[in-house]
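User: Second chain of the day. Same drill as before.
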Amino acid sequence: MKSLVIGLAIGIAIAYLGVYFTGFSAAIAVPQELTKVLSGKIFLIWEIAVTQFLGYGVIAFLLVFFSIKILQLSPWVTAIASLFSCEALLFATYTSQYTIYFPHFIVLVGCGTLAAFMASRKKHAQQAQAKCTP
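Assistant: Same format as last time:
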């Protein structure tokens, strides 16, 4: 229950902070050398790697990972709750403009999954090491 409640709070923080930081990351201009390479649909690479990753991905990863580690939460429950609450809050706040944006969704799911995986991996390694030491 604690993981679920804190996950919901983390999702709210990700949604509000992500909107704020995406404004800054969206202002990063594409270098002219890349505009020739990233034309058309391949431009999604820039959107995923720069705009959405710097706006939402870093925040999602850091908040989920450190909350799991510091508060000893269930990694997957916390990550899933935070992702669902983030998307629900964005939908509720921007109802007329909200659509499932593929780059945003990929970055959010990827960073949340990576944070939960890394936190659970370190947790299992610490538990195994504790069992080995007398």
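The helical segments are 2-26, 32-37, 44-71, 75-93, 102-132.

User: Great, on to the next one.
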